[in-house]
Amino acid sequence: SYVLTQPPSVAVAPGKTASITCGGHNIESKSVHWYQQKPGQAPVLVIYYDTYRPSGIPERFSGSNSGNAATLTISRVEAGDEADFYCQVWDSDADHPAIFGGGTRLTVL
Amino acid sequence: QVHLVQSGAEVMQPGSSVKVSCKASGGTFGSYTISWVRQTPGQGLEWLGRVTPSLGTTNYARNFQGRVTITADESTTTAYMDLSSLKSEDTAVYFCARANEGNGPFTYWGQGTLVTVSS
Hints:
The complex is a heterodimer.
Chain A: E1 9-12, E2 18-23, E3 33-37, E4 44-47, E5 61-66, E6 69-74, E7 83-90, E8 98-100, E9 104-108
Chain B: E1 3-6, E2 10-12, E3 18-25, E4 33-39, E5 45-52, E6 57-60, E7 68-73, E8 78-83, E9 92-99, E10 106-109, E11 113-117
Parallel strand pairs in B: 2-11
Antiparallel strand pairs in B: 1-3, 3-8, 4-5, 4-9, 5-6, 7-8, 9-10, 9-11
């Protein structure tokens, strides 16, 4: 079945840019959604269909998808951005249609 | 504004079944899909399956087929997830999540329900 690979952790200083990757075979042919999850809370959608931001999500959050990797980019990182981030796609494989990456812990130094 | 409110925490015996509910308010219940996603302690997210209330159709992840049943009651705008033959490894927080279209993003999430399986 289809596998999404994320780095376990990314650390960045406040005010800098964080990039979180989501690798998958020919992932550019799929639509990627990104979720932010803070401790003890439900996930929140931050990017959908590769590049779109839901209302209420800061413009500092952006997404891209090319080749075998999708990327979530957070500009001008703030302490409040610290969280786990998950990418997600839908796959035509009937065994497991909805697939999540393993998650990336973003630490703000 | 759409809200998904789940039932409270459960402590279950191994081998038993648990049924978790997810009541939706706001929006049109039947038009969307409701999925169930779980998160084991300290781990990532795992999709169990979904229901399309307006059609009554369901899809399940192969890992859970035969053990999970997802239903929806349009009259009460409530979705349910029933997981049987519980094992300690099923201890997790279970979330319901709504997608506005078949293979779209999970736009709204419930608050999560902790299910603990322990003898």
